[in-house]
Amino acid sequence: MDSRTGKAVRLGRILRPETGRAVVVAASHGVMAGPPSGLKTRNEIETVFAQLRAADGVMVSPGMIPLVENTFIGRDRPGFVLHLDWKNHARAIYTPGKDGRSEGVLAQLAEIGDVAACGIDAVMTYMYLGQKDTALEQAEIARNTRIVRECERHGIAVIIEPRSALEGIDPDALSAKVMSMYCRIAADIGADLVKALWPGSVEDFAAVTSTCYTPVLLAGGAGGEDPHSTLQLAADAMQAGASGVMFGRRIFRAQRPAGVLRALNAVVHEKQSVEQALRFLEQ
Ligand SMILES: O=C(CO)COP(=O)(O)O
């Protein structure tokens, strides 16, 4: 039995075979930052998740699984993505300005064998690079490599999001040069998908996607109040050669997540313009 088949089956539940693209919803923010606005209560979680049927994937934390498992059971359901690691991001929230950055201290939240048994299609892991302490950087490479090799054995897909430990400190942390290097490292370690932050322009993101042979999904960042800017960001990412988006707050904080999702599908899969897609927000 070849576990590559398992990986192809699972990856095919996320990247739509017809387009090779994906719109994934990230909903696991609580594990890093506490209750996220839009998903604070059980009621909010249930209300938002009931609107995510049209997503190609939805990312949750391990503890959320019993609460939302129905999202993933049945035909034509979103791919099941697990946020595999905690990172020391909460410090950045409760001590803003006091060296409150997430310099890449991470802990793995589940074993890959258990992930496979749970029916999960893909795991997402951060990969922090650029720490002053080279032991931390080395540990991050070793941790991500271990996850990728274990997922290969179990036929689970892996999404790596490379991040700079110098975000917010070094203005170059999100530059095309640094992002291209980090995304390519993620691909060369063996990620199936790379999730990347927006480096600031279509041109810079094109430099990232064109040098990363693994499909790149754009991460969203804060937002959600203005669906037009969400659609424009997705359109810019597609123009730059992305294979889709992996947005969280821009979807679950929206007034009607289902409408934003439908409109994002129009931009990402149907190549519709932002103006054309805007009509889906009303439907
Ligand atoms: O995947 C994500 C967080 O892990 C993306 O979330 P945001 O779009 O809210 O930044």
From TrEMBL:
InterPro entries, sorted: Aldolase_TIM, DeoC/FbaB/LacD_aldolase, DeoC/FbaB_aldolase, FbaB-like
Alphabetical list of SUPFAM superfamilies matching this protein: Aldolase
GO molecular function, one term: fructose-bisphosphate aldolase activity
Keywords from the UniProt entry: Schiff base
Keyword Transcription regulation: no
Superkingdom of the organism of origin: Bacteria
Pfam families, sorted: DeoC (PF01791)
Protein name: Fructose-bisphosphate aldolase
Source organism of this protein record: Mixta tenebrionis
Source lineage: Bacteria, Pseudomonadati, Pseudomonadota, Gammaproteobacteria, Enterobacterales
